[in-house]
Design a protein that fits this description.
By secondary structure, this protein is mainly α. Among the domains are: 27 residues; 31 residues. It is 32% helix and 0% strand. The chain contains one helix and no strands. It is rod-shaped, with a radius of gyration of 33 Å. Bound molecules: zinc ion (ZN). Zinc ion (ZN) binds next to loops.
Length: 87
């Protein structure tokens, strides 16, 4: 049995690694591999892209609130700093 830490080849019946002393009876820990990362990231990006287009689609159906308001320039002089307001 190969030690997962140092790679030393031990007897299959041994419970501890002869070289580093690691417990060989423990099951190896699960680590995500490249395939898992690709799958998870593709699902996350797919959800984000679909969510973006869905939100964009529904926001285009909502009437724009600010385009319909006409506020007199006398009330908002900071929006027109170069325009002289007639008294
Ligand atoms: Zn070892």
């Amino acid at each position: 049995m190969k030690c997962p830490d140092c790679g030393h080849d031990n007897k299959s019946s041994s419970k501890l690694c002869k070289k580093c002393g690691k417990d060989l009876t423990l099951p190896p820990a699960w680590f995500p591999d490249t395939k898992w990362h690709l799958k998870t990231l593709s699902v996350i990006y797919l959800i984000l892209i679909i969510g973006f287009f869905a939100a964009s689609h529904f926001l285009h159906k909502v009437p724009p609130p600010y385009d319909q308001r006409i506020i007199a320039p006398e009330m908002t002089p900071w929006l027109y700093p170069h325009k002289k307001v007639q008294p």
